[in-house]
Description:
single chain; about 325 residues
Amino acid sequence: MRNQQKLTDEIKSNLDTIRKYSRKDTDKANSIINLWDCKTEELNCDCNKGITRSFCDMIKRQATITNTRMKVLIGKILQHSIKMIDCPQPCKFSAVALGSLAKGEATPYSDLEFMILVERKTDEMIKYIELLAMSVYFMIGNLQETLLKYMNIEELKNFRDYGMNGFKINGLQQKAGNITTGNGTKEQKNKFILTVDELVKKHKAVLDNPHPEESLKGDFTAMLAHTACLCGDPSLMTEFELRRRDIPVNTSRKQSNLRMLQQDIKDYDFLPQHDLLETNYRANVKSSIYRFPSILAYNPKVFYSIESKTSWEIWKSCYRKVCCRRRFTEAFVFC
């Protein structure tokens, strides 16, 4: 018990340090954008352009550093969890990040989404991974930043929870469950304990489906566009990446992603000029601003078969492609 408390305190301390540095970097970025000249007749003057570039560079650098720190922290949590399981590993496995952590966009308050790739599925291996996953859940829950509603405990649903909603697992709610054991329902039991063969098969099923609504529905769509190894044997992830690259993207699939790009540009109009004049206007910062670049990035990634890992790298690849810039111009004009 004493060792567990010591471990919890250590993780809390590491998380607080990450948040402190993240806040410092955010303040630096704010000081840069505050230099922007709003009074000049030509808002897009060279001076403002330079400030905007510096601001974007700072945000990118901050996001990269913060994401790396969070990966290291979560890697340590997984390693501690492995040590707590008092039995040998039945076969090779790899803990793989999904979501914002895999896209390079995790903040110190982002929830954790992850899966486990296993060399082979046996009852012994499933039991081992279940123990590992539950150990991770409890270790993160002990930080006391998980609201009880995220744990989907029937007896506590009417309990008024005043705790801090911070760093937590993706959750056991019906709409959540992008974690190793799923959201607790029978249909999703251990949905993210997969062999490489199973993961390739699911990934292929996504790329073979040209229907926009279906292709963006479910767990193995844009989520699988970005993955990152957190701990364990990296050879399983390497094998998946190599096999994934051999999956062809058909023309219908590409056209579907182009249409989705056009629709996303319409749906994520996060800077409506007329709304800015409204009193107490509230922007949906998370879905309409923070996620906007990565939501758009998924479509050109599929369309041009870009192998970049993060959203930042995808846009950099797009910038280098003259044809890609022309297509994006067409998409914006179309909208």
